């Protein structure tokens, strides 16, 4: 059996057909996929929404309805066919537009049964509901059929949009007529499945007008002549299967007119059976829905273009945001990596910069000249929750060389980043050591990895590893950011390593130059030295305590300009000159000693500029017998010495300040002065460098006020218990230092033994 609308046409489509196929067929087929495979009641979804079209066949010889499609049966309820036209009309609740039941002589079915054509008339169906509301308006149209002498007529109830807001009956009628124009343009066909090929046996004038085929060209042929190469074969196959099974079908096909132009045709076909249930014909309803399909296709294309543009904009925005994030990361890296020279702190900062922005976790490993791992710093996005797993991982590599096949070893050997994706536990087995088969790698998340070598001027000293749980791997942009970050971190860490090495040498030199305080009978002394945190852990601050001829004791504090090894070396030379001149046979007073030292600096050409305070303390009797002490002091531009009495009172020893050492201007100034005082046994002297008192002001900000610093030192020492020892004093004043931008040296000396009570 063939279909009543279908396959290859008798006329080949022209170039206009090809153009229509190019612009409409693709998107329209997508838009109508669902509709083209629907089955069931006759639906004109593209013309009349979801409203069913009720179709009746009336046998004029008997005045009975012999066929009613699903929609028509739904209108009349449980009426069994064949049924008299008047009875069907009553069951369907057919009334005039005002809701009044129609008399038998005026009912559309009666006129159709009499063989009269019905050009179009608005009627209501379904009677009146419980609230007194009349049923919907439909447009009734019908005409007799000439089919081999059978006295049949076709009656169709076409749903139309209901007029709203019009009180004038004439206006209502006019609106109904206008809205029925579209409905009356629907093509109706009848085919005979009892004949070979299921040919058309009748078509209405709308069919010839819409398709372009005359009655003579249509009747006697299967409707497949409407089809062309672009007609959807799946929709045709579905229609054939439905009709072969004797059931209703509804599809939308791309059909063609005789001149080759294409149009979208919505076809709804329903079987007609006689009283014995035998299939006698198919009634087809066909509608040109090209305008709607094209509009839908254009709308879908516009929507797709909008969505594509939105996705492109989102991609561009994501790319821009990622670029901004990378720039922000690099800017932050520059700030963070330039703010410290501490190796451990720099490694922690580098790791935290990358998590979670670039990786789920990172590990920075340092190796020695033999390639043995000496330290591992690791950070995970889970924070301390992953610390145990990180420590377990680190323990497997510390103190050993990386396996030769590991990304760490390959990156260090080649000097290039190593990028691995799609990692599995088994794939990592050759270089995961004892972590294979444990939960550690799963806990950390090891789907992909990037290993970046960390290099210095002479060698590769470490590796920077970024790991993600996602096995998809790192994008090339991420690798470039990691490489750049690794380069910056490598430079910063190498600088920190070299600084650490230099600081170690400098600190050793510093401690060699600063003496161990000698044990002198009758004296107690303590000293404290702290290097500036922003320098090389070495500077020009120094102190000294030395026995002098005649039982006197020399007490020295000084500060050479500079914070490097050169300053430390100059400090050593100055300290030696002061010691030498203080031991001169004529035992000069401190002022004369500083004057001689100043001249020697010029004679020897030593580029030294320094402040210093030199004191000579001589006991008046037995140093351990509790007698008083005669103390002389000369000051070369140094902060004033403080003295504390045995009772705990604190004061400035003297206010004399001479010219700095090494300026070359001493011959132009008055001779250096020396202050002499007698102090009771148990008195303590506090000598210090300016790093102790040049601290941020208590008023806030970065202002440094020396007078305020001396006042704070004065108060702190005075607040200590009367029995405070020199050690207590050193510890007590150290916490005055909140900004270690300068070296600090402190020397406290107690003269003799305080008298009891």
UniProtKB/TrEMBL annotation:
Keyword field contains Hydrolase: yes
Region (Disordered): 1-22
SMART domains, alphabetized: GAF, PAC, PP2C_SIG
Residue intervals of the PAC domain: 247-301
Sequence ranges of Low complexity compositional bias: 1-17
Gene3D superfamilies, A to Z: 3.30.450.40, PAS domain, PPM-type phosphatase domain
Keyword Hydrolase: yes
CDD domains, sorted: PAS
Keyword entries, A-Z: Hydrolase
InterPro entries named in the record: Bact_Sigma-Reg (IPR052016), GAF (IPR003018), GAF-like_dom_sf (IPR029016), PAC (IPR001610), PAS (IPR000014), PAS-assoc_C (IPR000700), PAS-like_dom_sf (IPR035965), PPM-type-like_dom_sf (IPR036457)
A GO molecular-function annotation: phosphatase activity
Name of the molecule in the record: PAS domain S-box-containing protein
Protein species of origin: Klenkia soli
